[in-house]
Design a protein that fits this description.
10 helices, 7 strands, about 20% strand, alpha/beta, about 35% helix, globular
Length: about 240
Protein backbone atom coordinates (compact mmCIF):
# COMPACT_ATOMS: atom_id res chain seq x y z
CA UNK A 1 0.00 0.00 0.00
CA UNK A 2 1.43 3.37 -1.05
CA UNK A 3 2.01 6.01 1.59
CA UNK A 4 0.84 8.76 -0.78
CA UNK A 5 -2.59 7.35 -1.69
CA UNK A 6 -4.38 10.44 -0.42
CA UNK A 7 -2.07 12.66 -2.45
CA UNK A 8 -2.63 10.65 -5.64
CA UNK A 9 -6.42 10.66 -5.16
CA UNK A 10 -6.47 14.37 -4.32
CA UNK A 11 -4.49 15.66 -7.30
CA UNK A 12 -7.35 15.41 -9.87
CA UNK A 13 -9.60 17.37 -7.48
CA UNK A 14 -7.11 20.26 -7.76
CA UNK A 15 -6.61 19.76 -11.53
CA UNK A 16 -2.92 19.16 -10.83
CA UNK A 17 -0.92 16.47 -12.59
CA UNK A 18 2.27 15.00 -11.08
CA UNK A 19 4.41 12.52 -13.03
CA UNK A 20 5.13 9.11 -11.39
CA UNK A 21 8.72 10.22 -10.69
CA UNK A 22 7.30 13.22 -8.81
CA UNK A 23 5.01 10.96 -6.74
CA UNK A 24 8.10 8.95 -5.75
CA UNK A 25 9.75 12.19 -4.62
CA UNK A 26 6.72 13.06 -2.47
CA UNK A 27 6.88 9.56 -0.96
CA UNK A 28 10.54 10.01 0.01
CA UNK A 29 9.86 13.56 1.22
CA UNK A 30 7.18 12.26 3.58
CA UNK A 31 9.48 9.54 4.92
CA UNK A 32 12.18 12.13 5.64
CA UNK A 33 9.66 14.48 7.25
CA UNK A 34 8.45 11.77 9.63
CA UNK A 35 11.98 10.57 10.41
CA UNK A 36 13.37 14.05 11.16
CA UNK A 37 10.23 15.07 13.03
CA UNK A 38 11.14 12.58 15.73
CA UNK A 39 14.40 14.47 16.34
CA UNK A 40 13.39 18.08 15.75
CA UNK A 41 9.98 19.73 15.64
CA UNK A 42 9.24 20.42 11.97
CA UNK A 43 5.49 19.85 11.91
CA UNK A 44 2.70 19.00 14.34
CA UNK A 45 1.04 17.02 11.53
CA UNK A 46 2.21 13.40 11.71
CA UNK A 47 -0.42 11.13 10.10
CA UNK A 48 0.29 10.08 6.51
CA UNK A 49 -3.02 11.23 5.07
CA UNK A 50 -2.88 14.49 7.05
CA UNK A 51 0.58 15.25 5.64
CA UNK A 52 -0.80 14.59 2.14
CA UNK A 53 -3.76 16.92 2.67
CA UNK A 54 -2.45 19.71 4.89
CA UNK A 55 1.09 19.96 3.52
CA UNK A 56 1.36 18.43 0.04
CA UNK A 57 -2.08 19.11 -1.49
CA UNK A 58 -2.33 22.44 0.32
CA UNK A 59 1.01 23.53 -1.16
CA UNK A 60 -0.04 22.40 -4.64
CA UNK A 61 -3.22 24.53 -4.54
CA UNK A 62 -0.91 27.39 -5.55
CA UNK A 63 -1.03 26.08 -9.14
CA UNK A 64 -4.68 27.14 -9.27
CA UNK A 65 -3.39 30.71 -9.75
CA UNK A 66 -1.73 29.83 -13.07
CA UNK A 67 1.06 32.33 -12.28
CA UNK A 68 3.91 29.85 -11.88
CA UNK A 69 5.36 29.34 -15.36
CA UNK A 70 8.44 27.48 -16.55
CA UNK A 71 11.76 28.97 -15.35
CA UNK A 72 10.04 31.23 -12.80
CA UNK A 73 12.32 32.44 -9.98
CA UNK A 74 10.56 31.95 -6.62
CA UNK A 75 11.35 32.64 -2.96
CA UNK A 76 9.41 30.85 -0.20
CA UNK A 77 9.46 32.99 2.95
CA UNK A 78 9.20 31.23 6.31
CA UNK A 79 9.22 27.89 4.51
CA UNK A 80 9.28 25.72 7.67
CA UNK A 81 9.34 22.12 6.44
CA UNK A 82 9.62 23.29 2.81
CA UNK A 83 6.02 24.27 2.12
CA UNK A 84 5.06 25.30 -0.50
CA UNK A 85 8.53 25.64 -2.07
CA UNK A 86 9.52 21.98 -2.37
CA UNK A 87 6.12 20.78 -3.71
CA UNK A 88 6.32 23.62 -6.28
CA UNK A 89 9.78 22.39 -7.31
CA UNK A 90 8.63 18.75 -7.55
CA UNK A 91 5.66 19.78 -9.72
CA UNK A 92 7.68 22.11 -11.97
CA UNK A 93 11.37 21.23 -11.98
CA UNK A 94 12.25 24.20 -14.24
CA UNK A 95 11.53 26.71 -11.46
CA UNK A 96 14.41 28.25 -9.52
CA UNK A 97 13.52 28.15 -5.82
CA UNK A 98 14.98 29.73 -2.68
CA UNK A 99 13.70 28.48 0.69
CA UNK A 100 14.15 31.02 3.50
CA UNK A 101 13.74 30.14 7.17
CA UNK A 102 14.98 31.66 10.43
CA UNK A 103 15.60 28.29 12.16
CA UNK A 104 18.88 26.63 11.24
CA UNK A 105 17.74 23.13 12.26
CA UNK A 106 15.02 23.35 9.62
CA UNK A 107 17.60 24.39 7.02
CA UNK A 108 19.59 21.22 7.79
CA UNK A 109 16.43 19.17 7.20
CA UNK A 110 15.66 21.02 3.94
CA UNK A 111 19.20 20.47 2.67
CA UNK A 112 18.81 16.75 3.35
CA UNK A 113 15.49 16.71 1.43
CA UNK A 114 17.07 18.57 -1.51
CA UNK A 115 19.94 16.06 -1.57
CA UNK A 116 17.83 12.89 -1.17
CA UNK A 117 15.22 14.01 -3.73
CA UNK A 118 18.03 15.05 -6.10
CA UNK A 119 16.45 18.48 -6.68
CA UNK A 120 18.42 20.97 -8.79
CA UNK A 121 18.34 24.77 -8.84
CA UNK A 122 16.95 25.05 -5.32
CA UNK A 123 18.66 26.22 -2.14
CA UNK A 124 17.75 26.65 1.51
CA UNK A 125 19.07 29.73 3.32
CA UNK A 126 19.11 30.48 7.03
CA UNK A 127 18.10 33.99 8.02
CA UNK A 128 15.38 36.57 8.49
CA UNK A 129 13.39 38.18 5.72
CA UNK A 130 14.24 41.64 7.05
CA UNK A 131 17.97 40.99 6.54
CA UNK A 132 17.81 39.27 3.15
CA UNK A 133 15.23 41.79 1.86
CA UNK A 134 17.89 44.53 1.87
CA UNK A 135 20.61 42.30 0.38
CA UNK A 136 21.28 43.24 -3.27
CA UNK A 137 21.61 39.56 -4.19
CA UNK A 138 17.99 38.96 -3.14
CA UNK A 139 16.18 42.30 -3.19
CA UNK A 140 13.76 42.61 -6.14
CA UNK A 141 15.34 39.54 -7.76
CA UNK A 142 12.30 37.22 -7.81
CA UNK A 143 9.34 36.80 -10.15
CA UNK A 144 7.25 35.43 -7.27
CA UNK A 145 7.41 35.40 -3.48
CA UNK A 146 5.21 32.87 -1.69
CA UNK A 147 4.37 32.40 1.97
CA UNK A 148 2.06 30.09 3.86
CA UNK A 149 0.56 31.96 6.81
CA UNK A 150 3.65 33.01 8.76
CA UNK A 151 2.28 36.39 9.93
CA UNK A 152 -0.68 38.79 9.54
CA UNK A 153 -0.80 40.27 6.03
CA UNK A 154 0.35 43.81 6.93
CA UNK A 155 3.53 42.31 8.45
CA UNK A 156 3.92 39.65 5.74
CA UNK A 157 3.90 42.28 2.99
CA UNK A 158 6.95 43.97 4.49
CA UNK A 159 8.72 40.61 4.69
CA UNK A 160 7.81 39.61 1.13
CA UNK A 161 7.36 42.48 -1.34
CA UNK A 162 10.99 43.71 -1.12
CA UNK A 163 12.05 40.41 -2.76
CA UNK A 164 9.69 40.78 -5.74
CA UNK A 165 10.62 42.43 -9.05
CA UNK A 166 8.36 45.17 -10.36
CA UNK A 167 5.46 43.46 -12.21
CA UNK A 168 6.13 40.27 -10.23
CA UNK A 169 3.78 38.71 -7.69
CA UNK A 170 3.45 37.84 -4.03
CA UNK A 171 1.11 34.91 -3.32
CA UNK A 172 -0.09 34.71 0.27
CA UNK A 173 -1.61 31.36 1.26
CA UNK A 174 -4.05 31.93 4.10
CA UNK A 175 -7.21 30.81 5.85
CA UNK A 176 -10.54 32.66 5.78
CA UNK A 177 -9.26 35.29 8.25
CA UNK A 178 -7.46 36.85 5.28
CA UNK A 179 -10.49 39.05 4.52
CA UNK A 180 -10.10 40.91 7.82
CA UNK A 181 -6.34 41.11 7.30
CA UNK A 182 -6.81 42.71 3.86
CA UNK A 183 -8.58 45.70 5.41
CA UNK A 184 -5.74 46.20 7.87
CA UNK A 185 -3.09 45.85 5.15
CA UNK A 186 -4.28 48.72 2.93
CA UNK A 187 -1.60 51.15 4.13
CA UNK A 188 1.19 48.54 3.84
CA UNK A 189 0.15 47.73 0.27
CA UNK A 190 0.31 51.40 -0.78
CA UNK A 191 3.67 52.05 0.91
CA UNK A 192 5.39 48.85 -0.33
CA UNK A 193 4.13 48.96 -3.92
CA UNK A 194 1.59 46.13 -3.98
CA UNK A 195 -1.89 45.85 -5.45
CA UNK A 196 -4.35 43.02 -4.85
CA UNK A 197 -5.02 41.31 -8.15
CA UNK A 198 -6.99 38.14 -7.40
CA UNK A 199 -8.39 35.99 -4.60
CA UNK A 200 -8.86 32.25 -5.06
CA UNK A 201 -10.84 30.21 -2.56
CA UNK A 202 -9.75 26.57 -2.63
CA UNK A 203 -11.30 23.64 -0.79
CA UNK A 204 -8.71 21.13 0.35
CA UNK A 205 -9.65 17.63 -0.82
CA UNK A 206 -10.85 15.16 1.87
CA UNK A 207 -11.30 17.95 4.43
CA UNK A 208 -13.66 20.74 5.43
CA UNK A 209 -10.85 23.29 5.11
CA UNK A 210 -11.12 26.25 2.73
CA UNK A 211 -7.96 28.21 2.04
CA UNK A 212 -7.53 31.49 0.20
CA UNK A 213 -4.76 32.31 -2.25
CA UNK A 214 -4.27 36.07 -2.34
CA UNK A 215 -2.37 37.26 -5.41
CA UNK A 216 -0.69 40.65 -5.06
CA UNK A 217 1.01 42.32 -8.01
CA UNK A 218 4.03 44.54 -7.41
CA UNK A 219 3.19 47.71 -9.32
CA UNK A 220 6.12 49.86 -8.18
CA UNK A 221 9.47 49.45 -6.48
CA UNK A 222 9.54 49.15 -2.70
CA UNK A 223 11.10 52.23 -1.03
CA UNK A 224 14.67 51.47 0.09
CA UNK A 225 13.89 52.00 3.78
CA UNK A 226 11.80 48.79 3.76
CA UNK A 227 12.04 46.21 5.14
CA UNK A 228 12.93 47.81 8.45
CA UNK A 229 15.40 46.19 10.87
CA UNK A 230 14.67 42.68 12.17
CA UNK A 231 11.75 42.65 14.58
CA UNK A 232 10.42 46.12 13.62
CA UNK A 233 7.73 44.96 11.14
CA UNK A 234 6.25 42.75 13.86
CA UNK A 235 6.51 45.33 16.65
CA UNK A 236 5.14 48.23 14.60
CA UNK A 237 3.22 46.94 11.56
CA UNK A 238 2.65 49.45 8.77
Amino acid sequence: MSNVDTLVEGLPKLNVNIEPEGIDKFRLYKDLLKEWNEKINITAIKEDSEIDIKHFLDSLTIFRTDIIKDNTKIIDIGTGGGFPGIPIKIKNSSTEVVLLDSLNKRIKFLNEVIKQLNLKNIKAIHGRAEDFGIDKEYREQFDIAVSRAVAPLNILLEYSLPFVKKDGFFISMKGPQIYEEIEEADKALKILGGQIQEKYEVELPFSDITHVLLVIKKIKQTPTKYPRKAGKPKQKPL
